[in-house]
Amino acid sequence: MLSHQPFLVPALLLAEAASAQFATNAVSRQSTPVLNAIVQIGGYDDDDSLYLTTPRGSDVENPVPIIFDRNGTAVWVADSAYSNAFDMNTGYYNGSQVLTVWTGTVFSSGHGAGTCSLLDNTFNIVANVTSVGAEGADIHECHIPISTNSSALLTVYNTIPLDLSCCGGTSSGYLTDCWFQEVNITTGELIFNWSAVEHIPLQYSYAAPGGSGTEENPWDAYHFNSIDKDADGNYLISARHLHQVFLVNKTDGAVIWTMGGMQSNFTMGNGTNFEWQHHARYHEDYTKISLFDNAASDWEHDETTARGLLISFDTSTWNASLDMELLPQPYQNYSNSQGSMHLNPDGTWTVGFGSNPWMTEYSADGAVTFAMTLGDSNPPMNGPIQNYRWFKVDWEGNPADPPYVVINDSVAYFSWNGKTAVRSYDLLGGSDANGVSTVSTHVRSGFETNVSLSDFSHDYVGVLARDKSGNELGRSAVLAVANGSVIVSGSSNSSAMDSASSSAISLVAGQKVMLVVGAMTASAFIVL
Q: 456 or 8, which is more confident?
């Protein structure tokens, strides 16, 4: 975190005077805390893939979705409307690549009720989808199946009154019934709905009711956390509290087979048993399943470490065997909650360790090639910094807003939130707002690249962003400066802005001030 945070005072009257275009994606680390990411193993190797995260926890000051590059640099930081988000991933909707991200209310019991939003490459919402019935889509899954490009697979949690005396609860108890749904994104039409309590006996749960089972604290006997589909359209479900994945028939809802748990159709080979798992996905003609084995819950820790598993299975012999076990490095520990195992397009694997803030990447044969940690280089485990799932993706962000420059204490700070192609910045200067040119060039360094203006002798300052080939991507508005401080603001010489005004704002003579465009609202601030 930068130590020189300015004091921000709302100045809406100044905003009314400003006719320059407001930057809706303008996020400055001068006014917005940005979480660090530390590369522990490996580094940038011409791989321009990005990492999707949704950090949260007591040590995360600004719990919003963040996209990191392979240097650990944040390249997109979402605004506060996405606070406490979950499950940011990519998918295809009607043929175009989108980001999917869940937002809503997160309950202390470990589920939620909200909406899954689809964002285009300008980071604008193109569609929203939620559950049909119940309180809303749950935090755990918003997955657009490749086979449709038009529907979303959603986990849904629904509290119902139920007799729980079978399992040590009261006869007038309450259960969190788990549903999964497939919903048409465009129309909101329900395509398929399935209820756990209608098909799975409560006695199969490894999470005893304990003190739960009341209306205020219903029993979470099943805890669905992932959904996938096979070639025939049947549904693969992960139920954490059953220690089980199972396949549901797309037509009549019958359970076709179960893997793991108290009632497994498969003989589980050496190393294939899993507990409290997350994120089950099909691979290789639907003969293999990957999943994240937490090896723990909040109340049970009987294994030493979480791991990623790739399991082969055969429905003719009903045997399951271990293809690959992926252990974390440089740290090892069980993960109380959350987690993911993702097959990357190049055949490598990315495993995110959920309630532990680290990610490890592996070659196709399981060798560790890269590791990244959120927060400090020696992070606390299981809680203070968490990340539900890590995804390594190819994604090109193209926000409509131009690059952003902030000046504080004779230092210029450059950023372009969401413009993933930026590799360097030119500091622009000149004696005329419409005649600025390159003064110096600076490799992008961190979310916000900073340059001292102590020797800057020009009357106007701006920034120009370039890609890895040196091509110009866009320019900021131009600021009039004196002695390292902004004295007027609003002039534009930017190919990225359509028609920003060149009107200046009159400020009190001699006052050290700077205009900062609000991150998501048409507001301004005086920096004192």
A: 456
What per-residue string of b and e applies to 461-475 under the rule 16 or more CB within 10 Å gives b?
bbbbbbeeeeeebbb
Class (C level, CATH) for 8-13+401-527? mainly beta
Of 358, 245, 247, the C-alpha closest to 293 is 245
399/476 Cα distance (integer angstroms): 13
Kindly give, in sequence order, each residue whose CB lies less than 8 Å from that of residue 526, ignoring residues fewer than 6 positions away.
8, 9, 11, 14, 513, 514, 515
- Distance, in Å, from the CA atom of 211 to the CA atom of 209, rounded to the nearest integer, reads 6
Question: Measured between alpha carbons, how far is 471 from 140 in angstroms, rounded to an integer?
Answer: 40
Report the amino acid identity of residue 492: S
Reported as a single tens digit per residue, the pLDDT across 364-394 is 999 999 999 999 878 889 989 999 999 999 9
Put simply, whether the predicted model's pTM sits higher than 0.70 gets the answer yes
* Ranges of H-type helices in 141-288: none
Band of residue 176 on the pLDDT scale cut at 50, 70, 90? very high
Q: Distance (Å, rounded) from C-alpha 274 to C-alpha 266? A: 13
Distance CA 418, CA 67 (A): 8
Instruction: Tell me the C-alpha distance between 353 and 359, whole Å.
Output: 6
Strand-pair partners of 416: none
Residue 65's closest CA among 412, 313, 391, 286? 391
Which neighbouring-strand residues pair with 361?
A: 350, 370
